[in-house]
Design a protein that fits this description.
mainly alpha; two-stranded antiparallel sheet
Length: 340
């Protein structure tokens, strides 16, 4: 039985590695295509490009620092404050991004990354608050009932629709985090959640129209399928943080490749050149934040379950001692009656 289980596990890991390899190959193909395109039209790097690169690096550094500080909130103790602080910090970051976007020339500082991070914060706060619902908590414990999965499906579908409408224009081209939400839904809830969410979000994106409507819709559906497959292969558990980040990084490149394959080169390459960096930043950042929050929620739940188990054990021991004491009292009473 154990050997059979190990065999299945090894097969699943092999399937996951093959999927990651396919995504890596797709990113290499995308990179080659970009190099060939720029070798024909020429590569023009102006001050705006330098500012975009600098703003991306600065924003990622700030996000990395804040993400590292989130774990220190545990010093507050195991209480509701711990979970609330995650949402509060993300909310403050979102408000700050909106403030600075209005007050300063964001192209000098963070460019459109602040706008995207503001959208990311709004979406993630809603998702994070949803993880406090009973169905989500039960699914974290492995209770994938139809009711729990249906509620999860509805929540992620609504967020996916919102993510389709909430986008940032980079040189007139829209960038969004729809595929991130669909991927998370598949990794979290499996095929019963991820695939329908992908179909709903993809169909909605197709209905919005535009030159990239078809490739965007296809990549949305594929993200739900890939997330669902990894969920199955990973023993119905959400991926660890690092593999989840790598997955999102690679899938964003795969998403750009689909745009290249299904649209004319004179449209696709300028399109992805502008939106690829910001979508890469948003996808990886969003997966990082969600993974950290999900990990903290699981640790808190495991700690609570452990405390409950300890209390139950103590109660059982107390009951045993109570029975022994009662027996001793009866024996003493019988001895006293005999002496009389």
């Amino acid at each position: 039985m154990l050997k059979e289980k190990l065999k299945i596990t090894n097969k699943n890991y092999l399937k996951m590695n093959m999927l990651f390899l396919a995504l890596i190959i797709s990113n290499i193909i995308l990179l080659i295509g970009l190099i060939q395109y720029h070798s024909k039209v020429g590569l023009h790097i102006g001050i705006e490009t330098v500012e975009d690169i600098a703003s991306a690096i600065a924003t990622i550094c700030i996000l990395g620092f804040l993400s590292g500080q989130l774990s220190k909130i545990k010093g507050l103790g195991d209480s509701a404050v711990y979970g609330i602080m995650y949402s509060l910090i993300i909310c403050v970051i979102g408000l700050m991004s909106t403030y600075f976007d209005d007050k300063v020339d964001t192209a000098v500082f963070f460019g459109p990354y602040l706008d995207m991070f503001g959208i990311l914060c709004a979406v993630l706060i809603f998702v994070i608050l949803s993880t406090h619902l009973k169905p989500f908590k039960e699914m974290m414990k492995g209770k994938f009932t139809r009711r729990n999965q249906l509620i999860c499906l509805v929540v992620f579908a609504l967020v996916g629709l919102f993510a389709s409408d909430a986008f940032v224009r980079v040189n007139g081209m829209p960038a969004n985090i729809r595929c991130l939400i669909v991927m998370i839904s598949g990794l979290f809830g499996g095929p019963i959640v991820g695939i329908p969410v992908g179909l709903i979000s993809g169909a909605y994106r197709l209905s919005l129209g535009g030159t990239t409507a078809l490739p965007s819709a296809i990549s949305t559906v594929i993200s739900g399928i890939i997330g669902s497959l990894i969920f199955i292969w990973n023993d119905k558990k959400f991926l660890n943080t690092i593999p989840a980040l790598i997955l999102m990084l690679l899938f964003t490149g795969f998403e750009m490749l689909i745009v290249v394959l299904l649209t004319p080169p004179d449209i696709s390459f300028p399109f992805i050149q502008h939106i690829y960096p910001i979508m890469l930043f948003a996808s990886v950042s969003g997966m990082l934040l969600f993974s950290l929050v999900l990990k903290s929620q699981k640790e808190k739940m495991d700690s609570t379950d452990s405390e409950k188990d300890t209390i139950n054990q103590l109660q059982n021991e107390l009951e045993k001692y109570s029975e022994k004491i009662e027996n001793l009292e009866n024996e003493i009473k019988e001895l006293k009656d005999k002496e009389k």
